[in-house]
Design brief:
This protein has 78 residues and is an alpha+beta fold. It has helices spanning 18-27, 53-77; strands at residues 34-38, 44-48.
């Protein structure tokens, strides 16, 4: 017997494997990307397809804004 795994596109409080997140990003057809992470030995990793630091910061701040709104929306639903 085999089971089919269905990935849900929902916000979760569980950590997900980086491979899964990167695979989904590849499937999204992105035109620009900023990657931030930690290596196995705890060092910070940063890479961007965008050369202009101001544009990278803009993407980071937009992502921060969206994250803060998601948290606020979740708190409002409780």
């Amino acid at each position: 017997m085999t089971a089919e795994v269905i990935e849900l596109d929902v916000v979760t409080s569980l950590d997900l494997p980086p491979e899964r997140i990167l695979r989904k990003a590849q499937e999204a057809g992105l035109t620009e990307v900023v990657v931030i992470g930690l290596t196995d030995d705890g060092r910070e990793y940063f890479c961007s397809s965008v050369a202009d630091g101001g544009n990278v910061l803009w993407h980071l701040e937009r992502a921060r804004h969206r994250l803060m709104r998601q948290v606020d929306d979740m708190m409002d639903d409780e």
